[in-house]
Design brief:
42% of the residues lie in helices and 27% in strands. It is an alpha+beta fold. The protein has a three-stranded antiparallel β-sheet. The longest helix has 29 residues, at 115-143.
Amino acid sequence: MDQHEDVESRRRTARVLANAAEAELAALWDAWPDRPQVQYLRGPEAGLVMVQGRTGGTGDRFHLGEATVTRATVVVRSDQPDADEGVGTAYVLGSHPEHAGLAAIFGAMLASGRRERVLADVIEPLERAQAERDALARAEARSTVVDFFTVARENSGPDEEDDE
């Protein structure tokens, strides 16, 4: 995997874990059969980040305001003596320490020998569920769209009199 693919893969998995519901991650963690030992390097902590916007979505940047985020960094280790370990960091929007902790745990397992299993059992199902929710939300939003049209008046010239 080249560097670009690695960065894109990390962005994808971080996005999926951050956008997953905390309950989904908790259920997946509770069902995980051989849980590794988890040590917090940086416990879940909330802070503020400056959010930037763009005029019209593509124009000049401006400071929109601050948003609360929670971050956590963990290291996961297996009980076996020669087992590998992984470090994971997660950021989630809002003040959600449990969500950030669980996302960091799965992120750390992605950096360890459990990567393929986490991709298959956690990331891909969450990604599919998120895509289905997004498609449903788009369909619901599309069903409320009103198409407006205008009717040109017949006597739109400046010399013609109005019938009003």
